[in-house]
Amino acid sequence: VTNDFDDIATLIGKDLAGEISNEEQATLQHWLSLSEENQQYYRQVKQVFDTSASLKSWQSFDTDEAWRKMRERIHARQGRQDNVRMLSRMTYWRVAASLLLLLSAGYLGYRYWLTPQDRVTVASRTTTEQNTLPDGTQVFLNKSSSIAYEYNPVKKKRRVKLKGEAFFRIAEQKEEQFVLEAHDVIIEDIGTTFNVKAWPGSQQVEVYVESGEVAIYTVDNPGIRVLAGETGVYDRLKKTFTKTGTSDENILAYKTRVFIFRDTEMSSVIETINEVYPVKLRLENKAVEQCTITVTFQDETIDVIADIIAETLKLTIEKTETEILLKGNECSK
Amino acid sequence: VELSDEKELESIRAGDEAAFEVVFKRYYQTLCNYAYTYLPDREEAEEVVQSAFLVLWERRGSGIHTSVKAYLFSMVRNSSLNAIKHKKVRQKHAEEQLATHPGAAESVAHTVISNELEERIAKALQKLPEQCRLIFKMNRFEELKYAEIASELNISVKTVENQIGKALKIMRDQLRDYLTTFLIMMSSLFL
C-alpha cells in the first residue's frame, strides 16, 4: 500500500470500524507518519465516519405520539378478538316478539311480501356494480353477486336479499327497519356501513362492520352484535356465530382497490389480488408462494401491481390476455 | 443493550405489551432516522417503522433468529429499499401514460436541518452508488460487522471493506473544502 487513496480509505475505514488487523495497522501508521497531509486526510475521513453515525438522531421524531398510534393499532386489532357478546335478554325478546309478529302476521304479511312496493333487483356478472336503492341506501356489489330489494310500506320495512358479496351504506330512515337476508342469516342494521359475504355454496356468512353496529341472527339463534371493525361469522353447518380473530385489512379491497400487505406470503397476496382483478396473477414456481412481501397498493392497475411484485422478488413477467405469469425462483429480498 | 433485548424478546413472545413498549421506545428514533436516509418523506419513514413494529408484535417475535434490534433494522432496511423500487415502477408507469413527467422525485429534499455538517453528509450519502451506500449504512446505522454485512448480502468481506473505503473516499472528496475549514474551526475551539 502506498499513496493509493482507494486502498488507504479502505484501511482507514477498517481502522475506524475496528476491523483492522495488526499488520494493516502498522501499514496505516507508517502511511500516517509520512506527512502532515496524510494525517489531515485521516482526520477528514474520521469526521465523515463519525458524523454519519450521528445521523441516527439527526431528525427528531415524536416517539410518544408514535407509541400512542401504535397502541391504538394493536388494540383495534385485539378488540376484534374479544369474546362474542350475546344479545341482551331484552333484545332476545324483542327479536322473538318480532319473529312472532312475523309469523302471526302470517297470511297477511305473506301477501304484502308478494306485492311489495319499489321492488328492485341489481345483479353483477364479470364486473363490480354500484347502485343506489330507492331508499337512498348505497350498494356496492362484488362480481357475480345479486341483491333483491323490497320495500313494504305497511310494515315500514326495507328488506334485501343477497347472493354473493356486497357492501352497504345504509340510508338512515327513522322507524324504517333495514333487514338483510343472506342464506339463513338475518342482518339488522342500526345505522351503519358494512360488508356481507354470502356466496352460494359457501358454508359461511361473513359480516364485516366498517362503522356503526349491526345485529346478526337466524330464526333459531338470537345471534350476536357486531361492532365497527369487527367481523361476525355464521357457520351454516354448525349453526353458530363467532367473531373472527383475523383482522383482514383487505376485506373491502374489491370495492376500494386498496391492498395492504405486511410481510405477507405470496400465496395469500395472489389470492387476495385475484379476487379483485379480471386478469389473474399466477406464480410459475410454487416455491415463490412462500416468499413474503410488504407493500401497499392504492387503486393501481394490475400491470403496475405485477411490475412491483416482480421488481421486489426479482421475477420476470409474461403477459397474456387473461393472465400475468410471474417467473423466477428465489426469495431474494 | 443486546442482553436486555433478549429478556424483552421473551416477554414479547409471551404477549407482554409493556416489554413491547420498551423496545418500541428504545429504537423508534433511530429506526425512523434510518428509514429517513432511504426515503424522502418523514411520514413514509415513520410508516415503514410502524409496520415493522406491527409485524414484530403480531407475530410475537417469531422469526427472530438473531436479535430484536437486528430484526427491526433489517425489516426497516428491506421495506425502505422495496418502497424505493416500488416508487420507480409507479413512476415508470406514470411516465408512460403522461409521456412527460416533470421533475423526478429522486433527489431527497430534507427540510428540517439541525446541523450543517450533518446536512452535507446526509446529502453526500444520497449521492453514493447504490451498493456502496447500502453497505456503508448497514455499518454505520445498524452497527453490523463487516462479516455480518457480507453474509447478509451474500458478498465477500473484501467487497464490504472496499465499498466502505470507497464510500468514505467519495464523501471526503466531496466535502473536502468544507471539512478543512470545519476541522480548523473545531481545533481552534479546543486550543
Attribute tags:
heterodimer; A: 333 residues; alpha+beta; 13-stranded mixed beta sheet; three-stranded mixed beta sheet; 8 helices; 32% strand; elongated; B: 191 residues; mainly alpha; 77% helix; globular
Offer a concise description of the structure.
By secondary structure, chain A is of the alpha+beta class.
Overview of the structural elements:
The complex is a heterodimer of chains A (333) and B (191). Chain A has 333 residues and is an alpha+beta fold. Helix content of chain A is 34%, strand content 32%. In chain A, strand 10 and strand 11 form a beta hairpin. About 3% of the residues of chain A have low confidence. Chain B is an all-alpha fold and 191 residues long. Chain B is 77% helix and 0% strand. Chain B contains 8 helices and no strands. In chain B, helix 5 packs antiparallel against helix 8. The longest helix of chain B is centred in the last third of the chain and has 34 residues. Chains A and B meet through helix 1, helix 3, helix 4, strand 16 and helix 8 of A and helix 2, helix 3, helix 4, helix 5 and helix 6 of B.
Computed structural class of chain A? alpha+beta
> How many β-strand runs of chain A?
18
Shape assignment of chain B? globular
List low-pLDDT spans of chain B: 100-114
- SSE succession of chain B: HHHHHHHH
Instruction: Kindly provide the radius of gyration of chain B, computed on alpha-carbon positions and rounded to a whole number of angstroms.
Output: 19 Å
Mean pLDDT of chain A: 83
Q: Which chains share the greatest interface?
A: A-B, 53 and 66 residues
Percent in helix of chain B: over 70%
Distance between the termini of chain A: 36 Å
Strand content of chain A: 25-35%
- Average pLDDT rating of chain B: 83
> Biggest β-sheet of chain A, characterized?
13 strands, mixed
Spans of chain A with pLDDT under 50 lasting ≥5 residues?
A: 79-89
How many helices of chain B in DSSP terms? Answer: 8
